[in-house]
Amino acid sequence: MADRFTLSGTATPVDAQRMLEEICDHFVEHADVFRRENGAQLVTIIGNAEIDIVDDKLKIELICPTPKFVISARSMIAEHLFEFAGDEPLELIWSEEPNPHALPSFREATVVETMDVTPHMRRITVSCRNAEQFVGVGLHVRLLIPQGAARNNRAPAWPGMLPDGRVAWPDEKEMAVRIYTIRSVDLERGQLDIDFVLHESDGLPMPGAEFAVEAKPGDVIGIMGPGGDGVAHAGSLILAGDEAALPAIGRMVAEALPTSTIRAFIEVDNAAEEQELISKAKLEITWLHRNGGKAGTMRLLEAHVKEATETAPEGTYIWSGCEKTEARAIRDFLKSRGHDRKLMSISAYWQKPKVKA
């Protein structure tokens, strides 16, 4: 790492050892994790984190190539620490307190145009500054979507930062925050394509889908990121996902190496929801149709991933994004087979609403 920008912090959880184990267990699928006695090193695409247990506290040292990556790494570590702590008390102090008005990797984006890719997939093209920062890094971003009267405000009140490094997320009624995939990047125009699934709400608020339906040129949203996993490069890949993961699969096959062989299993409602996916790799797509069945209930992806894994060559990278229960089943299956954790990324892209008693 040629340039080094550092930041140190101290976390005081209820159980430092358990917290360290949770950090390592989570990040092993998203970073290179190197364990040592009472500590670990996380190596990510935005920098490194050194975490050690000292006097029942977690001592954290962030080392990144740019100041912006330091801000993003601090936010990433802080968000995960508090997620792992749950309802338990946790104190997190940094050597430099965050600027309350400086969101990590934030920029405004303006809607340029909209188009229907399929009957239930709408593409929104936005323009923003520094579009090149979305190339060669993570695929996902947080979209900040103004709600209510704020939707018509050309200068929305964006959220700030908390002293512990977390984002001070706004009230959902004023600013909805959702994670989406950048489907493609047009560097010449400085534009990003983002695909939105127009799914049924099941009685829950769907600010992303509602925005996609109503979006018009000139509308302003916020973007934080990119983050998450980047495009996986391997000689052999298995990709599996439903509509929610289709934009990520489309991006990965489009940027895959010509020497790669990809088997993709994509679950959609019917043939009308299929898309043409272009790739320089050797690509075989199996479209799985629910034909009216409820999304997240048919376990089609789980069955096909299991079958494909049985005959996959050694070193195959397996990626899946789907409903939480099915994602957990796929992850458990791969773990039971002893599949290399560095050669898999299994994510819950959404969760079925809980049935009320």
TrEMBL record:
Family from the record: Belongs to the SIP oxidoreductase family.
Pfam families: DUF2218, FAD_binding_9, SIP
Domain FAD-binding FR-type as annotated: residue spans: 104-233
Gene Ontology molecular function: any one: oxidoreductase activity
SUPFAM superfamilies reported in the protein's UniProt record: Riboflavin synthase domain-like
Name the record gives this protein: DUF2218 domain-containing protein
